[in-house]
Amino acid sequence: MSASNQFCRFLYIAGFCLTATLAQAAGLRSIDIPADADGPAIHGAMWYPCAEPPGEVRLDPFTLPGVKDCPLLGDKLPLVVVSHGKGGNFAGHHHTGEVLAEAGFIVAAISHPGDNSSDLSRSDDLSVFVERPQDIKRLIDFMLLASPVSTAIDRERIGLFGFSRGGYTGLVAVGANPDWAKATAICQHSASHACAQILRKEYPTEPPTHDPRIKAIVIADPLAVTLGADSLASVKVPVQLWASEYGGDGVLPHDVAAVDANLSAPHDYRVVPNSWHFSFLAPCSPALLRQRPELCVDPPRFDRAAFYARFDTEMIAFFRKWLARPAE
Description:
By secondary structure, this protein is an alpha/beta fold. The protein contains eleven helices and eleven strands. The chain has a single domain, classed as Alpha/Beta hydrolase fold, catalytic domain (Rossmann fold, 3-Layer(aba) Sandwich), CATH 3.40.50.1820. 30% of the residues lie in helices and 21% in strands. It has a nine-stranded mixed beta sheet with strand order 5-1-2-7-6-8-9-10-11, with helices on both faces. A two-stranded antiparallel ribbon has the order 3-4. Helix 3 crosses helix 4.
């Protein structure tokens, strides 16, 4: 099996492969955040501006476009952190990392412990919903204090991109407070362990982790069943909210529409016509289409490649607007 096919096979539920490459490569380095009192070890990667021609980088078990350990191009750059969906991993949104790096951002993505394609041990437990925002805080701490590019990051210009559970993660990180009881009705029809915990009222007792360093977020099809009006009242940063028309994988269109209705913060709301949940994953390679068609096949007449060109443009414009360097 080729390296690209191995990569596609491994990406599991939130994975994808791209058939196109960037004209200019992104620098690419692995991230390893050590275990500490706040949580287990975390693995991931970062992308950043690089002036060298495109190549490939092996970050076991992945082969990704980029230039390994390329010298960083620029200073006082904005940082965007990435949170994947259920059972995904740090590489699942590598295209987002690449295009943002080419646009002048440093991007860092992790595999959430216990809820990633290599370790699903706590994917169906409420504890992971508490720990995901804490993972993001630890990632930002690492990028600002210990990463090889720490001195090049503008600490006042930090954003977040999140998909599905990663969208939930982003909303909590910027102030949302989940209301676990709100999921009681939908849990009446689910056999999941997390729903069993909710029906038994075994709610997490730890307070949610918020991180005021995050100044703007882009989220796509967030898992928002526990986020009502009161939950979102403390979200004050700008939000670009994307929704699929049909939803999927536990994300219901009316729940995402409720996020739009209940957000008092400045936000843009974009419903993508004729799309479903996994339409937010970048275009699949032929290998992934054969292996995981449920991730790759869109509703009739939906052009994922054309949508992603628009999505990239609007996401970059949003982050440039809200993470702009103040006039000196």
